[in-house]
Each structure stands twice: as structure tokens, then as C-alpha cells.
Amino acid sequence: MEHLCIGYTMSLGDEGLNLAVDLKPPKSLYIEVKCTVDYGRYELNDGTVLLLKKDSRHYLPRCECEELIRQGVFEHIL
Hints:
By secondary structure, the chain is an alpha+beta fold. It has helices spanning 2-10, 62-71; strands at residues 30-35, 40-43, 49-52, 57-61, 74-77. It has a domain at 28-78: 3-Layer(aba) Sandwich (Ribosomal Protein L9, domain 1), CATH 3.40.5. The longest helix is centred in the C-terminal third of the chain and has 10 residues, at 62-71. InterPro entries: GINS_Psf1, PSF1_C.
């Protein structure tokens, strides 16, 4: 069974798909983040444009932040 999962996830692209991510649903849809760099303008899915400056804080939908957190642009404030 494990080899089927690995084969399936790797067939979805170079990096595959991690099926183990977010096994528990998030407690809230919005999170507070702190910008770690001067990133500049960033457009959200709804068309809102933010100016992301180092040390600025934002309360945003989790789905808008996840990639920027992985890139090191945002730090999740707990």
C-alpha cells in the first residue's frame, strides 16, 4: 500500500504531493503573520494589494499566507 501512495504522489509533479500535510484541520481561517523582508506589493486572490514591508504585521486568510511562509517572507505569529 505504501508504494502505491509514493507512486501516486510522485506522479503529480517533480516534488509530488504530501498527503500527510494538514491531517488536522486548522483552528481558524485567518492567521497573524509578520513580514520578514521588504517584499513590496503583493496581490491577494480577491484583488486587494498589500505593501509588505519588513516587520509589518498582517491578519490574513491562511491560504494566502502558506506559500509566503514556506518562502520565508512571512513568519506565523502564534
